[in-house]
């Protein structure tokens, strides 16, 4: 989870920059910006105002086929795939520098496209640049292996790029999720086709311009805006795509695995949904600080976060007092104009997601949970829902089991360590978990018992590029960040050489 960064610009300056933007709306295929083959477009809308920002190319099967062909030709040609890792590093570092130089524009594009506060978008840009630099710097420092043999043989283990990688990324962290996917794939020598969400394509198309300026060879990086059921499906079914890297819902992740099986058994790396437990034991210190973090864990980015701490599990001896502190923290996290640097929350991404969140709030009331906040959207234009807190939630309620992807917190009580672990693990998901305690023995016991890809102890999502990110169970099977993601975007080749005596 990225943090808000202090904005160097005022609200008026952000608006002036927005008014001056020249948006790229065409797909980027084979080193050229082009309209969709059939001329189709899709509208991308600012959810804070309802304003249509642009009509963007909506790619389909023909566009996917053209991009895959160009990617395969680039890969087989070797201008990137066989380039020395140190030289690939220089190009990717140049791209990172260009992203940093244009960070205000890139952050603004994500804010306008999906409604997140500009301070949050600036934090995303820092994360995206750091990711690109990390993988660029890592790629020429990874070695192959020499197998242990006798004097009559030499065994080598080589690491080679996969080929053509299709990266399908979500709308909640548009450019940061893009960096998590494309940085290791490009560093490893693959050709990459990026399919941004139809709800947030603008920063990806600007990134394509920067990639060309940085010197990525023709066909090595391409961007296909469009819908998942059209161009996304075409990429997933392509016999010439070697890998699918996806972040998004569990339902779509399951479809992509089916498409891989129906086509060429391409590798599929998934980072899917979550319903993450955040466990607060009575022995933790500084409840005000913990409550602030617990609120931010769900209300950051309007709750549109795969690892959002949406299930707050609190030991009953402190529950009443702690929930009051969370409510006070939530009052300081109200939504506002995304271009105002003071806004903690922004707008919900679109009308469909807005209605989905409101429906879950209604269901929570109907199922008997105690609504501790207003639970109503803000009046006026824009899709704004304030922080919503339910207490007395049980694991039989939809709000306690299903991923809402909005600013809705479900509070559970527990009386024992065993009960806390049972509640935490009673989920289809296993992306993240939080644990707040001062008892080191308890921390080690509970951490090992939690079925989760990552556990945050006395923090929520305080990570950097050195640790992998990903889940277990129906939260997926892939890992982003760290050198482990570089391993996913390469294949092992064993070479056995018989030596003359």
From TrEMBL:
Record bears the keyword DNA-binding: no
Domain Aldehyde dehydrogenase: 34-495
Stretches of the chain forming a coiled coil according to its record: none
Record keywords: Oxidoreductase
CDD domains registered for this protein in UniProt: ALDH_GABALDH-PuuC
Gene3D superfamilies: Aldehyde Dehydrogenase, Chain A, domain 1, Aldehyde Dehydrogenase, Chain A, domain 2
InterPro entries in the record: Ald_DH/histidinol_DH (IPR016161), Ald_DH_C (IPR016163), Ald_DH_CS_CYS (IPR016160), Ald_DH_CS_GLU (IPR029510), Ald_DH_N (IPR016162), Aldehyde_DH_dom (IPR015590)
Catalytic residues, chain numbering: 271
Protein family (similarity comment): Belongs to the aldehyde dehydrogenase family.
Protein name: Aldehyde dehydrogenase
Organism: Halomonas rhizosphaerae
């Amino acid at each position: 989870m990225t943090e808000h960064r202090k904005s160097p610009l005022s609200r008026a300056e952000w608006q002036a920059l927005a008014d001056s933007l020249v948006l790229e709306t065409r797909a980027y295929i084979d080193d050229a910006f082009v309209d969709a083959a059939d001329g189709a477009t899709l509208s991308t809308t600012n959810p804070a105002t309802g304003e249509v920002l642009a009509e963007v190319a909506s790619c389909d099967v023909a566009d996917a086929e053209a991009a895959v062909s160009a990617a395969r030709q680039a890969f087989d040609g070797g201008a990137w795939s066989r380039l020395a890792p140190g030289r690939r590093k220089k190009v990717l570092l140049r791209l990172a520098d260009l992203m940093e130089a244009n960070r205000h524009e890139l952050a603004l594009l994500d804010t306008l496209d999906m409604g997140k506060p500009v301070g949050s978008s600036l934090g995303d840009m820092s994360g995206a640049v750091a990711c690109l630099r990390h993988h660029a710097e890592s790629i020429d420092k990874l070695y192959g292996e020499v197998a242990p043999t006798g004097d009559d043989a030499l065994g080598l283990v080589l690491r080679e790029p996969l080929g053509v990688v299709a990266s399908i990324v979500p709308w909640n962290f548009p450019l940061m999720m893009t960096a998590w996917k494309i940085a290791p794939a490009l560093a490893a020598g693959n050709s990459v086709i990026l399919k941004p969400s139809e709800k947030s394509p603008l920063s990806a198309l600007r990134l394509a311009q920067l990639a060309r300026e940085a010197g990525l060879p023709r066909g090595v990086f391409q961007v296909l805006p469009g819908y998942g059921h059209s161009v996304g499906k075409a990429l997933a079914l392509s016999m010439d795509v070697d890998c699918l890297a996806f972040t998004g819902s569990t339902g779509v992740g399951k479809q992509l695995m089916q498409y891989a099986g129906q086509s060429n058994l391409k590798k599929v790396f998934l980072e899917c949904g979550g319903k993450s437990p955040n466990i607060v034991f009575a022995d933790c210190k500084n409840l005000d600080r913990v409550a602030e973090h617990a609120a931010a864990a769900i209300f950051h980015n309007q709750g549109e976060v795969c690892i959002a701490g949406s299930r707050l599990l609190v030991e009953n001896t402190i529950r009443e007092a702690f929930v009051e502190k969370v409510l006070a923290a939530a009052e300081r996290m109200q939504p506002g104009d995304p271009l105002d640097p003071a806004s903690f929350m922004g707008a919900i991404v679109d009308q469909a997601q807005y209605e989905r969140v409101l429906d879950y709030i209604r269901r929570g009331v109907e199922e008997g949970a105690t609504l501790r906040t207003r639970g109503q959207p803000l009046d006026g234009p824009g899709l704004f829902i304030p922080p919503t807190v339910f207490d007395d939630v049980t694991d039989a309620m939809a709000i306690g089991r299903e991923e809402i992807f909005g600013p809705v917190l479900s509070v559970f009580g527990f009386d024992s360590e065993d009960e806390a672990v049972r509640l935490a693990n009673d989920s289809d998901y296993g992306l993240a978990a939080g644990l707040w305690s001062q008892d080191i023995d308890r921390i080690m016991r509970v951490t090992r018992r939690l079925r989760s890809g990552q556990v945050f102890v006395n923090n929520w999502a305080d990570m950097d590029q050195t640790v992998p990110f990903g889940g277990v169970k129906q939260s997926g099977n892939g890992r982003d960040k760290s050198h482990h993601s570089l391993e996913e975007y390469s294949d092992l080749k064993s070479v056995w050489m018989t030596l003359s005596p």
